[in-house]
Specification:
Elements (H helix, E strand, L loop, with lengths): L6 E3 L5 E6 L1 H4 L2 E8 L10 E2 L5 E7 L1 E6 L2 E6 L3 E4 L5 E6 L5 E8 L6 H18 L11 H11 L5 E2 L4 H17 L15
Antiparallel strand pairs: 1-2, 2-3, 3-10, 4-11, 5-8, 5-10, 6-7, 6-9
Helix pairs in contact: 2-3, 3-4
Protein backbone atom coordinates (compact mmCIF):
# COMPACT_ATOMS: atom_id res chain seq x y z
CA UNK A 1 0.00 0.00 0.00
CA UNK A 2 1.40 3.38 -0.99
CA UNK A 3 2.40 5.84 1.71
CA UNK A 4 2.99 9.60 1.33
CA UNK A 5 6.67 10.09 0.51
CA UNK A 6 7.09 6.71 -1.22
CA UNK A 7 9.09 6.85 -4.45
CA UNK A 8 9.09 4.42 -7.35
CA UNK A 9 11.67 4.68 -10.13
CA UNK A 10 11.93 2.79 -13.38
CA UNK A 11 15.08 2.27 -15.49
CA UNK A 12 14.56 5.16 -17.93
CA UNK A 13 14.48 7.59 -14.99
CA UNK A 14 10.73 8.22 -14.71
CA UNK A 15 9.91 8.62 -11.02
CA UNK A 16 6.62 8.58 -9.11
CA UNK A 17 6.38 10.29 -5.70
CA UNK A 18 3.25 9.94 -3.58
CA UNK A 19 2.23 13.28 -2.06
CA UNK A 20 -1.24 12.24 -0.83
CA UNK A 21 -2.69 8.74 -1.12
CA UNK A 22 -6.25 7.56 -1.65
CA UNK A 23 -6.31 5.89 1.75
CA UNK A 24 -5.05 9.04 3.50
CA UNK A 25 -7.59 11.36 1.84
CA UNK A 26 -10.59 9.11 1.34
CA UNK A 27 -10.33 9.07 -2.45
CA UNK A 28 -8.14 11.94 -3.61
CA UNK A 29 -4.74 11.06 -5.06
CA UNK A 30 -1.87 13.55 -5.48
CA UNK A 31 1.36 12.38 -7.09
CA UNK A 32 4.43 14.09 -8.45
CA UNK A 33 6.06 12.72 -11.57
CA UNK A 34 9.67 13.36 -12.60
CA UNK A 35 10.20 12.70 -16.31
CA UNK A 36 13.63 12.81 -18.01
CA UNK A 37 14.05 14.76 -21.27
CA UNK A 38 12.42 13.00 -24.20
CA UNK A 39 10.36 10.62 -22.03
CA UNK A 40 6.61 10.21 -21.65
CA UNK A 41 4.33 9.47 -18.74
CA UNK A 42 2.08 6.46 -18.61
CA UNK A 43 -1.25 6.88 -20.43
CA UNK A 44 -2.61 6.74 -23.91
CA UNK A 45 -5.43 9.11 -24.81
CA UNK A 46 -8.18 8.35 -22.30
CA UNK A 47 -11.13 9.91 -20.49
CA UNK A 48 -12.71 9.75 -17.04
CA UNK A 49 -16.53 9.77 -16.95
CA UNK A 50 -16.64 11.47 -13.52
CA UNK A 51 -14.55 14.17 -11.92
CA UNK A 52 -11.81 16.37 -13.26
CA UNK A 53 -8.07 15.65 -13.24
CA UNK A 54 -5.66 18.44 -12.39
CA UNK A 55 -2.07 19.00 -13.48
CA UNK A 56 0.63 21.53 -12.61
CA UNK A 57 4.16 21.87 -13.97
CA UNK A 58 6.52 22.33 -11.03
CA UNK A 59 9.72 22.39 -13.10
CA UNK A 60 10.62 22.02 -16.75
CA UNK A 61 8.68 22.13 -20.02
CA UNK A 62 5.92 19.78 -21.11
CA UNK A 63 3.44 19.11 -23.83
CA UNK A 64 0.08 17.53 -23.11
CA UNK A 65 -3.16 16.93 -24.95
CA UNK A 66 -6.71 17.86 -23.96
CA UNK A 67 -9.69 17.19 -26.26
CA UNK A 68 -7.36 16.33 -29.14
CA UNK A 69 -5.43 19.64 -28.95
CA UNK A 70 -1.75 19.76 -27.93
CA UNK A 71 -0.66 22.41 -25.45
CA UNK A 72 2.70 23.44 -24.05
CA UNK A 73 3.19 24.18 -20.35
CA UNK A 74 6.13 25.45 -18.31
CA UNK A 75 6.87 25.76 -14.60
CA UNK A 76 4.00 27.59 -12.89
CA UNK A 77 1.36 26.54 -15.44
CA UNK A 78 -1.56 24.35 -14.45
CA UNK A 79 -4.64 22.97 -16.15
CA UNK A 80 -7.70 20.90 -15.42
CA UNK A 81 -9.08 18.14 -17.61
CA UNK A 82 -12.91 18.20 -17.39
CA UNK A 83 -14.87 14.99 -16.86
CA UNK A 84 -15.32 12.79 -19.93
CA UNK A 85 -12.67 14.70 -21.92
CA UNK A 86 -10.00 12.89 -23.91
CA UNK A 87 -6.49 13.70 -22.69
CA UNK A 88 -2.89 12.51 -22.72
CA UNK A 89 -0.62 12.99 -19.72
CA UNK A 90 2.33 15.38 -20.09
CA UNK A 91 5.58 14.45 -21.78
CA UNK A 92 8.93 16.18 -21.44
CA UNK A 93 9.93 18.45 -24.34
CA UNK A 94 12.63 20.34 -22.45
CA UNK A 95 16.31 19.77 -21.82
CA UNK A 96 15.94 19.31 -18.03
CA UNK A 97 13.80 16.91 -16.01
CA UNK A 98 10.09 17.68 -16.01
CA UNK A 99 8.37 17.64 -12.62
CA UNK A 100 4.58 17.57 -12.89
CA UNK A 101 1.99 17.22 -10.12
CA UNK A 102 -1.18 15.24 -10.85
CA UNK A 103 -4.35 15.40 -8.78
CA UNK A 104 -7.09 12.82 -9.25
CA UNK A 105 -10.22 13.35 -7.17
CA UNK A 106 -11.93 10.03 -7.64
CA UNK A 107 -14.35 10.25 -4.74
CA UNK A 108 -17.42 10.09 -7.03
CA UNK A 109 -16.40 6.52 -8.03
CA UNK A 110 -15.77 4.32 -5.01
CA UNK A 111 -12.33 2.69 -5.17
CA UNK A 112 -11.13 4.47 -8.31
CA UNK A 113 -8.28 6.39 -6.66
CA UNK A 114 -6.89 3.18 -5.19
CA UNK A 115 -7.26 1.56 -8.62
CA UNK A 116 -5.35 4.46 -10.20
CA UNK A 117 -2.61 4.14 -7.54
CA UNK A 118 -2.35 0.43 -8.25
CA UNK A 119 -2.34 1.05 -12.02
CA UNK A 120 0.56 3.52 -11.72
CA UNK A 121 2.44 1.08 -9.50
CA UNK A 122 1.84 -1.78 -11.94
CA UNK A 123 3.07 0.32 -14.85
CA UNK A 124 6.22 1.23 -12.92
CA UNK A 125 6.73 -2.42 -11.87
CA UNK A 126 6.37 -3.62 -15.46
CA UNK A 127 8.81 -0.91 -16.61
CA UNK A 128 11.25 -2.03 -13.90
CA UNK A 129 11.06 -5.54 -15.43
CA UNK A 130 11.42 -4.27 -19.02
CA UNK A 131 7.82 -5.19 -19.86
CA UNK A 132 6.85 -1.75 -21.23
CA UNK A 133 7.96 -0.09 -24.44
CA UNK A 134 9.44 3.37 -25.07
CA UNK A 135 5.93 4.87 -25.05
CA UNK A 136 5.28 3.32 -21.59
CA UNK A 137 2.75 0.87 -23.07
CA UNK A 138 2.54 -2.64 -21.62
CA UNK A 139 4.13 -5.05 -24.11
CA UNK A 140 1.69 -7.92 -23.44
CA UNK A 141 -1.82 -7.21 -24.78
CA UNK A 142 -3.33 -9.64 -22.24
CA UNK A 143 -1.54 -7.98 -19.31
CA UNK A 144 -2.66 -4.60 -20.61
CA UNK A 145 -6.30 -5.69 -20.91
CA UNK A 146 -6.30 -7.22 -17.42
CA UNK A 147 -4.62 -4.24 -15.76
CA UNK A 148 -6.89 -1.68 -17.42
CA UNK A 149 -10.09 -3.71 -16.87
CA UNK A 150 -9.53 -4.50 -13.20
CA UNK A 151 -7.76 -1.38 -11.97
CA UNK A 152 -9.22 1.47 -14.04
CA UNK A 153 -12.68 0.60 -15.36
CA UNK A 154 -15.33 2.05 -14.94
CA UNK A 155 -13.47 5.25 -13.96
CA UNK A 156 -11.27 5.43 -17.06
CA UNK A 157 -11.76 4.45 -20.65
CA UNK A 158 -9.64 4.81 -23.76
CA UNK A 159 -10.57 7.81 -25.89
CA UNK A 160 -12.43 6.94 -29.04
CA UNK A 161 -14.09 3.53 -28.86
CA UNK A 162 -17.52 3.54 -27.21
CA UNK A 163 -17.63 2.46 -23.56
CA UNK A 164 -19.87 -0.56 -24.32
CA UNK A 165 -17.37 -1.82 -26.90
CA UNK A 166 -14.43 -1.47 -24.51
CA UNK A 167 -16.37 -3.33 -21.82
CA UNK A 168 -17.21 -6.09 -24.32
CA UNK A 169 -13.59 -6.44 -25.50
CA UNK A 170 -11.68 -6.05 -22.23
CA UNK A 171 -13.79 -8.46 -20.14
CA UNK A 172 -12.97 -11.67 -22.09
CA UNK A 173 -9.32 -10.64 -22.59
CA UNK A 174 -8.96 -9.99 -18.85
CA UNK A 175 -10.56 -13.39 -18.11
CA UNK A 176 -8.11 -15.09 -20.49
CA UNK A 177 -5.20 -13.27 -18.87
CA UNK A 178 -6.30 -14.48 -15.41
CA UNK A 179 -6.60 -18.06 -16.71
CA UNK A 180 -3.01 -17.76 -17.95
CA UNK A 181 -1.86 -16.77 -14.47
CA UNK A 182 -1.47 -13.02 -14.94
CA UNK A 183 -2.45 -10.60 -12.17
CA UNK A 184 -3.88 -7.11 -12.68
CA UNK A 185 -1.65 -5.60 -9.98
CA UNK A 186 2.12 -6.06 -10.00
CA UNK A 187 4.09 -4.83 -6.96
CA UNK A 188 6.94 -2.45 -7.84
CA UNK A 189 10.25 -2.04 -6.10
CA UNK A 190 9.75 1.13 -4.08
CA UNK A 191 11.84 3.38 -1.94
CA UNK A 192 10.15 3.88 1.43
CA UNK A 193 9.23 7.36 2.57
CA UNK A 194 11.95 9.27 4.35
Amino acid sequence: MAQPGDRIREPSGVELLYVETAEQTGGKLVVEWTVPPGRRLVARAHRHPDGPEGWAVVRGRARHEVAGVEHEAVAGDDWEVPANTSHVHPWNVGSEPLVARQTVDARPIDGLALGVERYFETMMALAQRGDTDEKFDIRSPLQSALTIRELLMPGSYLAGPPTWLQDALFAPLAALARRRGLRAYVEPVREPSA
